[in-house]
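Issue: ligand-bound run for adenosine-5'-diphosphate - logging full I/O for the record.

Environment: standard queue, default settings, no custom constraints.

Inputs:
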Amino acid sequence: MARILVIDDEPAMVEVISTLCRELGHQVFPFNSPERAIEALPGCMPQAVIADIQMESVSGFDILKACRDLNPMPAVIMVTGHASVQTAVEAMKLGAYDYVTKPFKIDELQLSIQRALDFQCAVRENVYLKKELKERYKFENIIGSSPKMQQVYSLIAKVADTDSTILIQGESGTGKELVARALHFNSRRQHHPFVAVNCSALPENLLESELFGHKKGAFTGAVQDKMGLFEEAHNGTIFLDEINSMAQTLQTKLLRVLQERVIRRVGDTKNIPISVRVLAASNESLHEKILTGGFREDLYYRLAVIPIEIPPLRERLEDIPLLAQHFVQKIAVQNTTPVAKIQPEALEALACYPWPGNVRELENAIERACALCDESLIKVNDLPTQVVHRIPTPAGETPAQLPVGESLDSFVKELERRFIEETIRFNEGSRDRAAKMLNISMATLYRKLA
Ligand SMILES: Nc1ncnc2c1ncn2[C@@H]1O[C@H](COP(=O)(O)OP(=O)(O)O)[C@@H](O)[C@H]1O
Ligand SMILES: [Mg+2]
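Outputs:
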Protein backbone atom coordinates (compact mmCIF):
# COMPACT_ATOMS: atom_id res chain seq x y z
CA MET A 1 0.00 0.00 0.00
CA ALA A 2 1.35 3.38 -1.00
CA ARG A 3 0.43 6.93 -0.03
CA ILE A 4 -0.95 8.91 -2.97
CA LEU A 5 -1.81 12.58 -2.90
CA VAL A 6 -4.49 13.68 -5.38
CA ILE A 7 -4.96 17.33 -6.34
CA ASP A 8 -7.55 18.77 -8.69
CA ASP A 9 -9.68 21.87 -8.32
CA GLU A 10 -12.64 19.95 -9.79
CA PRO A 11 -14.15 17.98 -6.89
CA ALA A 12 -15.65 15.35 -9.19
CA MET A 13 -12.24 14.62 -10.68
CA VAL A 14 -10.67 14.24 -7.24
CA GLU A 15 -13.43 11.80 -6.39
CA VAL A 16 -12.88 9.67 -9.49
CA ILE A 17 -9.11 9.48 -9.14
CA SER A 18 -9.27 8.82 -5.39
CA THR A 19 -11.72 5.96 -5.83
CA LEU A 20 -9.53 4.44 -8.46
CA CYS A 21 -6.46 4.62 -6.21
CA ARG A 22 -8.36 3.11 -3.28
CA GLU A 23 -9.44 0.27 -5.54
CA LEU A 24 -5.77 -0.44 -6.14
CA GLY A 25 -5.41 -0.68 -2.37
CA HIS A 26 -3.61 2.61 -1.73
CA GLN A 27 -4.10 5.25 0.94
CA VAL A 28 -5.39 8.48 -0.63
CA PHE A 29 -4.97 12.10 0.45
CA PRO A 30 -7.48 14.07 -1.66
CA PHE A 31 -7.24 17.87 -2.08
CA ASN A 32 -9.37 20.41 -3.90
CA SER A 33 -7.15 23.28 -2.90
CA PRO A 34 -3.64 23.11 -4.39
CA GLU A 35 -2.32 25.50 -1.72
CA ARG A 36 -3.48 23.17 1.05
CA ALA A 37 -2.02 20.23 -0.83
CA ILE A 38 1.39 21.90 -1.01
CA GLU A 39 1.25 22.55 2.73
CA ALA A 40 0.37 18.93 3.41
CA LEU A 41 3.10 17.42 1.22
CA PRO A 42 6.01 17.32 3.71
CA GLY A 43 3.85 15.77 6.43
CA CYS A 44 2.28 13.20 4.14
CA MET A 45 5.45 12.20 2.22
CA PRO A 46 3.50 10.43 -0.54
CA GLN A 47 5.16 7.97 -2.91
CA ALA A 48 3.08 9.38 -5.76
CA VAL A 49 1.26 12.63 -6.53
CA ILE A 50 -1.46 12.95 -9.15
CA ALA A 51 -2.06 16.59 -10.02
CA ASP A 52 -4.10 18.55 -12.52
CA ILE A 53 -1.78 20.70 -14.54
CA GLN A 54 -4.15 23.64 -14.99
CA MET A 55 -5.87 24.90 -11.89
CA GLU A 56 -7.24 28.33 -11.04
CA SER A 57 -4.73 29.57 -8.49
CA VAL A 58 -1.69 27.33 -8.53
CA SER A 59 -0.32 25.51 -11.55
CA GLY A 60 0.84 21.93 -11.75
CA PHE A 61 4.36 23.32 -12.04
CA ASP A 62 4.15 24.73 -8.52
CA ILE A 63 3.08 21.33 -7.26
CA LEU A 64 5.97 19.77 -9.15
CA LYS A 65 8.36 22.24 -7.59
CA ALA A 66 7.08 21.47 -4.10
CA CYS A 67 7.51 17.76 -4.79
CA ARG A 68 11.07 18.28 -5.91
CA ASP A 69 11.84 19.74 -2.49
CA LEU A 70 10.96 16.44 -0.87
CA ASN A 71 13.53 13.75 -0.35
CA PRO A 72 12.88 11.20 -1.77
CA MET A 73 10.85 13.01 -4.40
CA PRO A 74 7.46 11.40 -5.05
CA ALA A 75 6.64 10.27 -8.58
CA VAL A 76 4.40 12.94 -10.08
CA ILE A 77 1.70 12.14 -12.63
CA MET A 78 0.20 15.14 -14.38
CA VAL A 79 -3.40 15.14 -15.55
CA THR A 80 -3.92 17.43 -18.50
CA GLY A 81 -6.58 18.61 -20.89
CA HIS A 82 -6.04 17.86 -24.55
CA ALA A 83 -4.95 21.43 -25.25
CA SER A 84 -2.16 21.39 -22.71
CA VAL A 85 -0.15 18.37 -23.84
CA GLN A 86 2.76 20.66 -24.65
CA THR A 87 2.72 21.90 -21.05
CA ALA A 88 2.71 18.32 -19.82
CA VAL A 89 5.77 17.58 -21.90
CA GLU A 90 7.46 20.58 -20.28
CA ALA A 91 6.50 19.16 -16.89
CA MET A 92 8.11 15.84 -17.79
CA LYS A 93 11.31 17.68 -18.61
CA LEU A 94 11.16 19.23 -15.16
CA GLY A 95 10.94 15.87 -13.49
CA ALA A 96 7.31 14.73 -13.66
CA TYR A 97 7.13 10.97 -14.04
CA ASP A 98 4.24 10.72 -16.50
CA TYR A 99 1.11 12.45 -17.76
CA VAL A 100 -2.36 11.32 -18.78
CA THR A 101 -4.73 13.35 -20.97
CA LYS A 102 -8.36 13.91 -20.08
CA PRO A 103 -10.57 12.10 -20.74
CA PHE A 104 -8.50 9.11 -19.68
CA LYS A 105 -9.42 5.47 -19.48
CA ILE A 106 -9.40 4.01 -15.99
CA ASP A 107 -6.86 1.32 -16.81
CA GLU A 108 -4.61 3.89 -18.45
CA LEU A 109 -4.32 5.88 -15.22
CA GLN A 110 -4.06 2.69 -13.15
CA LEU A 111 -1.18 1.47 -15.25
CA SER A 112 0.59 4.79 -14.96
CA ILE A 113 0.18 4.74 -11.16
CA GLN A 114 1.53 1.22 -10.93
CA ARG A 115 4.56 2.11 -13.04
CA ALA A 116 5.15 5.29 -11.06
CA LEU A 117 5.12 3.35 -7.80
CA ASP A 118 7.49 0.69 -9.14
CA PHE A 119 9.80 3.44 -10.26
CA GLN A 120 9.52 5.14 -6.89
CA CYS A 121 10.38 1.88 -5.18
CA ALA A 122 13.52 1.53 -7.30
CA VAL A 123 14.50 5.13 -6.55
CA ARG A 124 14.13 4.61 -2.81
CA GLU A 125 16.12 1.42 -2.97
CA ASN A 126 18.80 3.28 -4.86
CA VAL A 127 18.88 6.07 -2.28
CA TYR A 128 19.21 3.44 0.42
CA LEU A 129 21.98 1.58 -1.42
CA LYS A 130 23.88 4.80 -1.99
CA LYS A 131 23.62 5.63 1.69
CA GLU A 132 24.89 2.19 2.56
CA LEU A 133 27.75 2.56 0.10
CA LYS A 134 28.65 5.87 1.64
CA GLU A 135 28.70 4.22 5.09
CA ARG A 136 31.07 1.63 3.75
CA TYR A 137 33.49 4.18 2.34
CA LYS A 138 33.63 6.52 5.29
CA PHE A 139 37.18 7.40 6.22
CA GLU A 140 36.65 5.55 9.50
CA ASN A 141 36.51 2.30 7.57
CA ILE A 142 40.06 2.70 6.41
CA ILE A 143 41.87 1.11 9.31
CA GLY A 144 45.37 1.92 10.50
CA SER A 145 46.89 3.73 13.45
CA SER A 146 50.48 3.70 12.24
CA PRO A 147 52.06 7.12 11.64
CA LYS A 148 52.37 6.25 7.95
CA MET A 149 48.63 5.61 7.64
CA GLN A 150 47.83 8.68 9.72
CA GLN A 151 49.68 10.70 7.11
CA VAL A 152 47.64 9.06 4.36
CA TYR A 153 44.39 9.92 6.19
CA SER A 154 45.17 13.54 6.72
CA LEU A 155 46.11 13.85 3.07
CA ILE A 156 42.97 12.17 1.73
CA ALA A 157 40.74 14.14 4.10
CA LYS A 158 42.26 17.32 2.71
CA VAL A 159 41.97 16.47 -0.95
CA ALA A 160 38.74 14.44 -1.09
CA ASP A 161 36.44 17.34 -1.78
CA THR A 162 38.54 18.95 -4.48
CA ASP A 163 38.58 18.25 -8.19
CA SER A 164 42.30 17.51 -8.23
CA THR A 165 43.57 14.54 -10.15
CA ILE A 166 45.14 12.08 -7.75
CA LEU A 167 47.62 9.29 -8.31
CA ILE A 168 47.51 6.53 -5.71
CA GLN A 169 50.60 4.35 -5.65
CA GLY A 170 51.19 1.21 -3.67
CA GLU A 171 51.70 -2.52 -3.99
CA SER A 172 48.78 -4.77 -4.84
CA GLY A 173 46.40 -5.22 -1.90
CA THR A 174 47.43 -2.12 0.02
CA GLY A 175 44.00 -0.52 -0.28
CA LYS A 176 44.32 1.75 -3.33
CA GLU A 177 40.80 1.13 -4.55
CA LEU A 178 39.43 1.58 -1.04
CA VAL A 179 41.11 4.99 -0.89
CA ALA A 180 39.81 5.92 -4.36
CA ARG A 181 36.24 5.09 -3.34
CA ALA A 182 36.61 6.98 -0.07
CA LEU A 183 37.81 10.00 -2.03
CA HIS A 184 34.77 9.85 -4.30
CA PHE A 185 32.19 9.20 -1.59
CA ASN A 186 33.49 12.10 0.45
CA SER A 187 33.44 14.55 -2.43
CA ARG A 188 30.64 16.70 -3.82
CA ARG A 189 30.52 14.27 -6.75
CA GLN A 190 29.32 11.46 -4.45
CA HIS A 191 25.77 11.43 -5.89
CA HIS A 192 27.14 10.88 -9.36
CA PRO A 193 28.76 7.72 -10.70
CA PHE A 194 32.03 6.21 -9.53
CA VAL A 195 33.38 4.23 -12.47
CA ALA A 196 36.38 1.95 -11.96
CA VAL A 197 38.35 0.65 -14.95
CA ASN A 198 41.18 -1.83 -14.74
CA CYS A 199 43.59 -0.73 -17.46
CA SER A 200 45.42 -4.06 -17.49
CA ALA A 201 42.32 -6.14 -18.11
CA LEU A 202 41.79 -5.29 -21.79
CA PRO A 203 43.95 -5.10 -24.92
CA GLU A 204 44.73 -1.58 -26.07
CA ASN A 205 42.08 -1.08 -28.76
CA LEU A 206 39.29 -2.52 -26.63
CA LEU A 207 40.33 -0.36 -23.70
CA GLU A 208 40.24 2.71 -25.91
CA SER A 209 36.66 2.10 -27.02
CA GLU A 210 35.74 1.14 -23.46
CA LEU A 211 37.07 4.45 -22.14
CA PHE A 212 35.97 6.78 -24.90
CA GLY A 213 33.18 4.90 -26.66
CA HIS A 214 32.89 4.41 -30.41
CA LYS A 215 30.79 5.27 -33.42
CA LYS A 216 28.85 2.68 -35.30
CA GLY A 217 31.10 1.20 -37.99
CA ALA A 218 34.34 2.49 -36.39
CA PHE A 219 35.67 -1.07 -36.55
CA THR A 220 34.34 -4.56 -37.25
CA GLY A 221 31.95 -5.40 -34.50
CA ALA A 222 30.99 -1.79 -33.77
CA VAL A 223 27.38 -2.36 -34.76
CA GLN A 224 26.04 0.67 -32.98
CA ASP A 225 27.20 3.87 -31.28
CA LYS A 226 28.51 3.19 -27.81
CA MET A 227 29.07 5.53 -24.91
CA GLY A 228 32.43 5.23 -23.18
CA LEU A 229 33.17 5.08 -19.46
CA PHE A 230 34.33 8.70 -19.37
CA GLU A 231 30.87 9.74 -20.54
CA GLU A 232 29.24 7.33 -18.10
CA ALA A 233 31.20 8.93 -15.27
CA HIS A 234 29.99 12.41 -16.24
CA ASN A 235 29.81 14.63 -13.15
CA GLY A 236 31.28 11.80 -11.14
CA THR A 237 34.67 10.13 -10.80
CA ILE A 238 36.59 7.74 -13.02
CA PHE A 239 39.16 5.48 -11.36
CA LEU A 240 41.88 4.30 -13.75
CA ASP A 241 43.30 1.31 -11.93
CA GLU A 242 46.68 -0.20 -12.89
CA ILE A 243 47.39 2.78 -15.12
CA ASN A 244 51.00 1.57 -15.28
CA SER A 245 49.94 -1.08 -17.80
CA MET A 246 48.34 1.38 -20.23
CA ALA A 247 49.88 1.29 -23.74
CA GLN A 248 51.83 4.33 -24.95
CA THR A 249 49.43 5.40 -27.71
CA LEU A 250 46.54 5.34 -25.27
CA GLN A 251 48.61 7.29 -22.74
CA THR A 252 48.89 10.02 -25.37
CA LYS A 253 45.13 10.06 -25.91
CA LEU A 254 44.48 10.15 -22.18
CA LEU A 255 46.84 13.08 -21.80
CA ARG A 256 44.81 15.00 -24.38
CA VAL A 257 41.59 14.26 -22.49
CA LEU A 258 43.10 15.50 -19.24
CA GLN A 259 44.37 18.67 -20.89
CA GLU A 260 41.30 19.53 -22.91
CA ARG A 261 38.52 17.95 -20.86
CA VAL A 262 36.82 16.63 -23.96
CA ILE A 263 36.62 13.11 -25.30
CA ARG A 264 36.18 11.84 -28.81
CA ARG A 265 34.52 8.50 -29.48
CA VAL A 266 36.58 6.13 -31.64
CA GLY A 267 35.70 6.80 -35.28
CA ASP A 268 34.00 10.11 -34.51
CA THR A 269 35.06 13.63 -35.41
CA LYS A 270 33.12 15.48 -32.79
CA ASN A 271 34.38 16.34 -29.31
CA ILE A 272 32.20 15.73 -26.27
CA PRO A 273 32.89 17.92 -23.25
CA ILE A 274 33.05 16.05 -19.95
CA SER A 275 33.23 16.94 -16.29
CA VAL A 276 34.91 13.98 -14.67
CA ARG A 277 37.33 13.80 -11.80
CA VAL A 278 40.18 11.44 -12.54
CA LEU A 279 41.79 9.18 -9.96
CA ALA A 280 44.49 6.74 -11.03
CA ALA A 281 46.34 3.92 -9.31
CA SER A 282 49.60 2.20 -10.04
CA ASN A 283 51.11 -0.86 -8.40
CA GLU A 284 54.63 -0.13 -9.61
CA SER A 285 56.75 2.97 -9.45
CA LEU A 286 55.83 5.19 -12.39
CA HIS A 287 59.08 7.08 -11.88
CA GLU A 288 61.01 3.95 -12.76
CA LYS A 289 58.73 3.30 -15.70
CA ILE A 290 59.44 6.81 -16.99
CA LEU A 291 63.19 6.15 -16.83
CA THR A 292 62.86 3.01 -18.92
CA GLY A 293 60.55 4.74 -21.40
CA GLY A 294 57.42 2.79 -20.40
CA PHE A 295 55.43 5.77 -19.19
CA ARG A 296 55.01 9.32 -20.50
CA GLU A 297 56.52 11.82 -18.14
CA ASP A 298 54.03 14.57 -19.07
CA LEU A 299 51.12 12.22 -18.34
CA TYR A 300 52.68 11.36 -15.00
CA TYR A 301 52.72 15.01 -13.97
CA ARG A 302 49.11 15.46 -15.11
CA LEU A 303 48.00 12.49 -13.03
CA ALA A 304 50.16 13.04 -10.00
CA VAL A 305 48.86 16.52 -9.20
CA ILE A 306 48.48 15.03 -5.76
CA PRO A 307 50.38 11.78 -5.24
CA ILE A 308 49.30 9.44 -2.46
CA GLU A 309 51.69 6.69 -1.46
CA ILE A 310 50.20 3.75 0.44
CA PRO A 311 52.93 1.88 2.30
CA PRO A 312 53.08 -1.92 2.15
CA LEU A 313 51.70 -3.68 5.21
CA ARG A 314 55.16 -4.96 6.22
CA GLU A 315 56.19 -1.35 6.83
CA ARG A 316 53.34 -0.82 9.28
CA LEU A 317 53.06 -4.11 11.11
CA GLU A 318 51.54 -2.23 14.06
CA ASP A 319 48.33 -1.86 12.02
CA ILE A 320 47.81 -5.62 11.90
CA PRO A 321 45.94 -6.16 15.20
CA LEU A 322 43.42 -3.43 14.36
CA LEU A 323 43.00 -4.68 10.81
CA ALA A 324 42.56 -8.27 12.00
CA GLN A 325 39.93 -7.11 14.49
CA HIS A 326 38.20 -5.12 11.76
CA PHE A 327 38.02 -8.12 9.41
CA VAL A 328 36.83 -10.48 12.14
CA GLN A 329 33.96 -8.08 12.78
CA LYS A 330 33.25 -7.56 9.09
CA ILE A 331 33.00 -11.31 8.55
CA ALA A 332 30.74 -11.76 11.58
CA VAL A 333 28.37 -9.13 10.20
CA GLN A 334 28.45 -10.69 6.72
CA ASN A 335 27.73 -14.20 7.97
CA THR A 336 25.61 -13.17 10.97
CA THR A 337 27.81 -15.28 13.23
CA PRO A 338 29.39 -14.35 16.56
CA VAL A 339 32.57 -12.24 16.36
CA ALA A 340 35.56 -14.59 16.58
CA LYS A 341 38.30 -13.95 19.13
CA ILE A 342 41.94 -14.19 18.17
CA GLN A 343 44.27 -16.08 20.51
CA PRO A 344 47.31 -13.95 21.53
CA GLU A 345 49.72 -16.47 19.92
CA ALA A 346 47.81 -16.25 16.66
CA LEU A 347 47.84 -12.46 16.77
CA GLU A 348 51.58 -12.63 17.37
CA ALA A 349 52.02 -14.84 14.28
CA LEU A 350 49.91 -12.44 12.20
CA ALA A 351 51.92 -9.45 13.36
CA CYS A 352 55.26 -11.07 12.44
CA TYR A 353 54.50 -12.17 8.91
CA PRO A 354 55.61 -9.80 6.11
CA TRP A 355 52.36 -10.07 4.07
CA PRO A 356 53.55 -9.88 0.45
CA GLY A 357 49.89 -9.71 -0.62
CA ASN A 358 49.34 -6.88 1.88
CA VAL A 359 45.95 -6.15 3.42
CA ARG A 360 44.14 -8.31 0.87
CA GLU A 361 46.20 -11.34 1.94
CA LEU A 362 45.52 -10.57 5.60
CA GLU A 363 41.80 -10.26 4.94
CA ASN A 364 41.76 -13.63 3.15
CA ALA A 365 43.73 -15.27 5.97
CA ILE A 366 41.24 -13.98 8.55
CA GLU A 367 38.28 -15.08 6.48
CA ARG A 368 39.76 -18.55 6.15
CA ALA A 369 40.55 -18.69 9.88
CA CYS A 370 36.99 -17.65 10.78
CA ALA A 371 35.68 -20.51 8.68
CA LEU A 372 38.08 -23.10 10.09
CA CYS A 373 38.23 -22.21 13.77
CA ASP A 374 36.31 -23.98 16.52
CA GLU A 375 34.09 -22.16 18.98
CA SER A 376 34.86 -18.77 17.47
CA LEU A 377 38.43 -18.79 18.72
CA ILE A 378 41.16 -18.34 16.11
CA LYS A 379 44.25 -20.32 17.06
CA VAL A 380 47.65 -20.45 15.39
CA ASN A 381 46.67 -23.65 13.59
CA ASP A 382 43.78 -21.89 11.91
CA LEU A 383 46.20 -19.59 10.09
CA PRO A 384 47.73 -20.39 6.70
CA THR A 385 50.97 -22.37 7.00
CA GLN A 386 53.13 -19.68 5.41
CA VAL A 387 51.97 -17.28 8.13
CA VAL A 388 52.71 -19.75 10.91
CA HIS A 389 56.21 -20.35 9.55
CA ARG A 390 56.76 -16.80 8.37
CA ILE A 391 57.58 -17.98 4.88
CA PRO A 392 56.23 -15.35 2.53
CA THR A 393 54.87 -16.41 -0.84
CA PRO A 394 57.10 -15.53 -3.82
CA ALA A 395 55.97 -11.93 -4.31
CA GLY A 396 57.11 -11.03 -0.80
CA GLU A 397 60.39 -10.31 0.81
CA THR A 398 62.53 -12.97 2.40
CA PRO A 399 62.14 -13.27 6.16
CA ALA A 400 64.97 -11.92 8.26
CA GLN A 401 66.17 -15.09 10.04
CA LEU A 402 67.57 -17.32 7.28
CA PRO A 403 70.27 -19.94 7.99
CA VAL A 404 73.08 -18.40 5.89
CA GLY A 405 75.94 -20.82 5.18
CA GLU A 406 73.90 -23.92 4.28
CA SER A 407 73.76 -25.32 0.78
CA LEU A 408 70.71 -24.24 -1.21
CA ASP A 409 69.66 -27.83 -1.70
CA SER A 410 69.60 -28.70 1.99
CA PHE A 411 67.80 -25.46 2.82
CA VAL A 412 65.08 -26.07 0.24
CA LYS A 413 64.72 -29.71 1.36
CA GLU A 414 64.39 -28.63 4.99
CA LEU A 415 61.77 -26.03 4.09
CA GLU A 416 59.89 -28.59 2.01
CA ARG A 417 59.92 -31.13 4.82
CA ARG A 418 58.54 -28.60 7.32
CA PHE A 419 55.92 -27.47 4.88
CA ILE A 420 54.73 -31.00 4.17
CA GLU A 421 54.67 -31.94 7.86
CA GLU A 422 52.71 -28.82 8.72
CA THR A 423 50.19 -29.48 5.98
CA ILE A 424 49.66 -33.02 7.25
CA ARG A 425 49.24 -31.71 10.79
CA PHE A 426 46.81 -29.12 9.47
CA ASN A 427 44.80 -31.95 7.92
CA GLU A 428 44.75 -33.79 11.24
CA GLY A 429 47.13 -36.44 9.98
CA SER A 430 45.30 -37.20 6.75
CA ARG A 431 48.01 -37.67 4.12
CA ASP A 432 45.36 -38.03 1.48
CA ARG A 433 43.94 -34.54 2.13
CA ALA A 434 47.44 -33.10 2.60
CA ALA A 435 48.50 -34.36 -0.86
CA LYS A 436 45.40 -32.78 -2.38
CA MET A 437 46.11 -29.48 -0.65
CA LEU A 438 49.74 -29.57 -1.78
CA ASN A 439 48.58 -30.46 -5.27
CA ILE A 440 50.90 -33.49 -5.50
CA SER A 441 50.15 -37.19 -5.90
CA MET A 442 50.15 -39.60 -2.94
CA ALA A 443 53.16 -41.34 -4.48
CA THR A 444 55.13 -38.07 -4.53
CA LEU A 445 54.10 -37.33 -0.97
CA TYR A 446 55.36 -40.73 0.26
CA ARG A 447 58.58 -40.42 -1.72
CA LYS A 448 59.25 -37.01 -0.18
CA LEU A 449 58.46 -38.23 3.32
CA ALA A 450 60.84 -41.12 2.90
N1 LIG B 1 43.42 0.25 5.58
C1 LIG B 1 42.47 -0.64 5.32
N2 LIG B 1 41.43 -0.80 6.17
C2 LIG B 1 40.47 -1.72 5.94
N3 LIG B 1 40.44 -2.51 4.87
C3 LIG B 1 41.43 -2.41 3.97
C4 LIG B 1 42.49 -1.47 4.15
N4 LIG B 1 43.34 -1.57 3.11
C5 LIG B 1 42.85 -2.53 2.31
N5 LIG B 1 41.69 -3.04 2.81
C6 LIG B 1 40.89 -4.14 2.21
O1 LIG B 1 41.79 -5.00 1.54
C7 LIG B 1 41.27 -5.42 0.29
C8 LIG B 1 42.18 -5.00 -0.84
O2 LIG B 1 42.13 -3.59 -0.99
P1 LIG B 1 42.13 -2.87 -2.42
O3 LIG B 1 41.69 -1.47 -2.21
O4 LIG B 1 41.37 -3.67 -3.40
O5 LIG B 1 43.69 -2.92 -2.76
P2 LIG B 1 44.47 -2.52 -4.08
O6 LIG B 1 43.52 -1.78 -4.96
O7 LIG B 1 45.59 -1.68 -3.61
O8 LIG B 1 44.95 -3.81 -4.69
C9 LIG B 1 39.88 -4.81 0.19
O9 LIG B 1 38.93 -5.75 0.62
C10 LIG B 1 39.95 -3.63 1.14
O10 LIG B 1 38.68 -3.33 1.64
MG1 LIG C 1 43.17 -2.93 -6.89
